[in-house]
Amino acid sequence: MTSVAIPLVVRRTIKALPGPLFDAFATEASLTCWFTPSPDITVEALKYDFTPGGRFRLRYRMPDGRNPVVAGVFEVIDRPKQIVMTWEWQAPDPLENVPMKVSFRFLEKPNATEVVITHEGIPSDSVCSIHADGWEATLSVLDAFFIRETQQ
């Protein structure tokens, strides 16, 4: 695989304050409502310890029957500004044991927050493209989640 020189950066402005957006990561119950690239893909928290040094393990249930698992460690939890975590797909995923890092920054804007995802350590351009599509779609699901929350 070829190395990607520039980390993947995905941005989305969401009409919500940084605190509530940050809190969408804080519990297993809230995270599993939206942390997926598509409404027809569900996510299950097999382990979720949202503390500095805490571990997570998430299983995605795909419509085609695959169940990829990603795991990592929360390195930085700085409410409401930033979350940094390691990101490693588990066997039998083709990216198993490829160490990556994902950070989420929450930048306050007038009546909104810009969510900036930086994904480092992606091993190839094709994998970068797949993850770019995934993160863009995940932010769309998060945006829809907050639209629903504000309408209730």
Automatic annotation (TrEMBL):
InterPro entries: ASHA1/2-like_C (IPR013538), START-like_dom_sf (IPR023393). Residues 20-145 form the Activator of Hsp90 ATPase homologue 1/2-like C-terminal domain. It holds the Pfam family AHSA1. Belongs to the AHA1 family. This is Activator of Hsp90 ATPase homologue 1/2-like C-terminal domain-containing protein.
